[in-house]
Each structure stands twice: as structure tokens, then as C-alpha cells.
Amino acid sequence: MRLTPLEKDESLFSNIDSLAPDFVPKLLPHRENEQKEIANVLAPLLEDKPARNLFIYGKAGIGKTHAVKRVLEDLSEYGLLSVFINCWLYPESKEILAQVAKHLGMVEPSIEKIKQRVQARPIVFVFDEIDQAKELSFLYALLEEIPKKSIILISNKPEFIAYMDERIRSRLQPQLMEFREYTQEEVKDILRERRKYAFYEETWSKEAIALLEEKVAEKCDIRFGLLLMREAGLNAEKDASRIVLKKHVEEALSKLSSS
After folding, report:
1. Burial code of 26-38, b = ≥16 C-beta within 10 A, e = fewer?
2. I want to staple 171 with a disulfide (CB 3.0 to 4.6 A). Which of 5, 90, 113, 143 is the partner?
């Protein structure tokens, strides 16, 4: 049966925002154990006690950031305060402390003022892409001045801790957590789950799904997969197609490989 063309006021997407890199779904398939371990590390803070620090490492696009954000969002319901900073965007110590202050509703980004604002309240500091920080004086200051805290560092580079200044490393003493790569079957599960968030039912052909899964499994990068889904869906809408076809994924691959 031939389908009628997609109208201008119609869309294949039920929620295109769920394909954004910073969207954190309620369900993170195949990261349940890691989320449980992160929550266990932070649990003492819920009892008004200091907690261990954590260094999370693994390849890009395998759920490190999302797993941490999911746990923090869940624990915020119990009143746990957290600050999340991407050091790729803010690599200088001065910038990082300014962002910490901003998250805490402050204007002056001094460690003394941050300490006064936090006082004895338990707090989690997360520094994503920590290997992009140009120096770590901010980390030393937080370790020395904030009493009830946990510091989570996230990186693609497992060797980062080994090259850290010994004075900071000895104070940090982090628990290490490696995020393994997804298997091919796990990649399929994750993409299937995200398609449910992002697209209406029966809007993807089997051939398009197969190519999507193949290319994402090759890279083992879910972030790439989300972008590929989004671009393929937009290509289909541009053709007024009610189905995302294999050619739409191929066009998206060509665009992404040339960008």
C-alpha cells in the first residue's frame, strides 16, 4: 500500500528533544549496575556524612555522563545538592569556580564564599571531561575547604589520575570505576529504547534500523547514534516520507562523515 506524503504540519518525531546529547532518559539500559555503584558511593551524604570520591573513565559515548546525571537527579528528590561542570567548556580554575558559584546562586566565585554558602550541607561536585582542565587548584581548594562532599571526576583517559599532582591525588583518594563498551546487542537495545522516546511507532523501515545499528555498533558511540537518528528523521521529513528509509540513514551518514 502506497503511503500518502507527510503533510507540512505533521512530523515523524514524537519528541525530537530526546535525541539531544544532554537529554537524560528515565531508563538507561545496561548501566543499572554502574548507577547502583555511583548511588552507593554517594549514599553516606544522605545521612549527613562525608562520602568517597569517584573517578569514572571509559570511551566517549558509552553513558558515563548520563549515568551520573541520572543518579544525581534521582538523589535530588532526597534533597542532595549537586554541582555539575563540564571542564571542556570551562577549563580554567577561575572559570570552574565561577560556574560552581553560579550553580549555588552566588555572584562572588571565591572558595571562601562557596564554603560559607555550602556550610556543612552535603554536596556532590561533578567535573566532566576533567582531563581538559588546565590546572587543578580549584580541586585542591574544594578538597581542603568543603567538609561533607563527594567529588566525581569523569574522563575518557584512565591514566589521568596517575599524572595528577601527588598532593591532590593523596587528598582525593578516589574509588575507580571503569565503564566498559557496550556489546552489539546492548547497542540495539539502547537505540530501540531511544526511538520509542523520539519517534512515533512504525516510522522506521527494517533496513534503516539495520544500517543504523550496524554503524553505531562499529563506533560504539551512542551519542553518534542519537545524532544519526535525528538527521535520518529530518531527511525523511524533508522528502515528506512517512517512513525513515535506508537512504535517509545513508544521507545522514554522508553528512556526518563530511562535517
Report:
1. eebbbbeebbebb
2. 143
CB-CB contact of 186 with 213 (8 Å): no
Q: What is residue 221's DSSP assignment? A: -
Write out pLDDT tens, residues 195-245.
999 999 999 999 999 999 999 999 999 999 999 999 999 999 999 999 999
Q: Cell for 182?
A: 557496550
Contact 232, 244 (CB under 8 A): yes
User: Using CB atoms within 10 A of its CB, is residue 117 exposed (0-12), middle (13-18) or buried (19+)?
Assistant: middle
> pLDDT by residue (tens digit) across 196-210?
999 999 999 999 999
Low-confidence stretches of the chain (pLDDT < 50) are 1
Nearest alpha carbon to residue 138 among 101, 176, 177, 174: 101
Domains and CATH numbers, the chain: 16-24+182-258 (1.10.8.60), 32-178 (3.40.50.300)
Alpha-carbon distance of 37 to 137, in angstroms, equals: 28
Contact predicate 181/57, CB 8 Å: no
Nearby residues of 174 by Cβ (< 8 Å), 6 or more positions away: 52, 53, 54, 55, 151, 153, 161
